[in-house]
Write the structure tokens for this entry.
Amino acid sequence: MRTTVGIIGAGPAGLLLARLLHNAGIDSVVLESRDRAYVERRQRAGILEQGTVDVLREAGAGERMDREGLRHDGIELRFARRRHRVDFPALTGGRSVMVYAQTEVCKDLIALQLKEGGPLLFETEALAVEDADTERPRVRFRREGVEDVLECDYVVGCDGYWGVARSAVPDGRTFERTYPFGWLGILADVAPSHDELVYARHDRGFALLSMRSPSVSRLYLQVPADTDAGSWSDERIWDELERRFETDDDWSLRRGPITQKSVTPMRSYVHEPMRHGRLFLAGDAAHIVPPTGAKGLNLAVGDVVTLARALTHRTATGSDDLLDAYSATCLRRVWQAERFSYDMTTLLHTAPDATSFEDRLQLARLDRITSSRAAETDLAEAYTGFPIG
């Protein structure tokens, strides 16, 4: 089998890249180890930056998002029983975010790829990337028990931290931080208790109120990293959420049936460079952020938009200039997102060994954001998205 661009992984990064390349007249093949049903129900991110929304629309993948997604023009910061709304459009010249789950993005892109694009091969395990430093890289894979080879001009690893692509980049540098807490996340069949996301800093730990739809709530609690989600009863979860979201007004938390519980670990990770020869890394294969800043999916989109532009430029002009700049271009944005995600995480979470001095610093930082337009603007600009490319 032969193609121009071999894409490993049918998450949002791989699927969007295939769509962008298709629109540019560049052929690709996508290899995905899981079946279609698994990819379409895999719960991940739910916040799309303004730039991501714009890219999906331009790619022809925004129709259902615009119909069913929830535009949000701000978030609420909650601390010391106080509430403060950050107004995104007022601070950023009109930018906003969209609540639209990664599962739905994947469903939309899969449908388009199967209808219009190149091969999308589910249940196809990539085994190795070979000859990445030559003009004819290859992906060795197994499908229906039979090994085969995909010959390419370029290979793109969108297969996550544990995938084969990252391990095929020799002599890379890694930068990493693991946090001593995680998020106990729930899905609940109850209307959200607020019409925008609420980020709560509390002495007992962080809490986040989010949603998947007007009738399904997504909520999170900071818990120790080794927490077993099954050890928390539904009543205990609701009670703890109520404590952490407490305010001095009459706001109340709606409770409902919990349909899913899981614990998400918290870590920061960057792999440099994001390229080796004709192998390019994108998304979680190259970088991971704690979910506090809602950057993971959006960073992956930035990577593949940058790469698609570079490949289109190469096809049109024969120049490798943009391909050669791919890693440096992406990493500038990656490190800004890492910085913002780290800032949000340390701003809102209670470290197990935090001193009273550090607690007061958190409150001082929050006071600064809520009393200074400049500080609030910095948060709003970062949350709604850094420029792509």
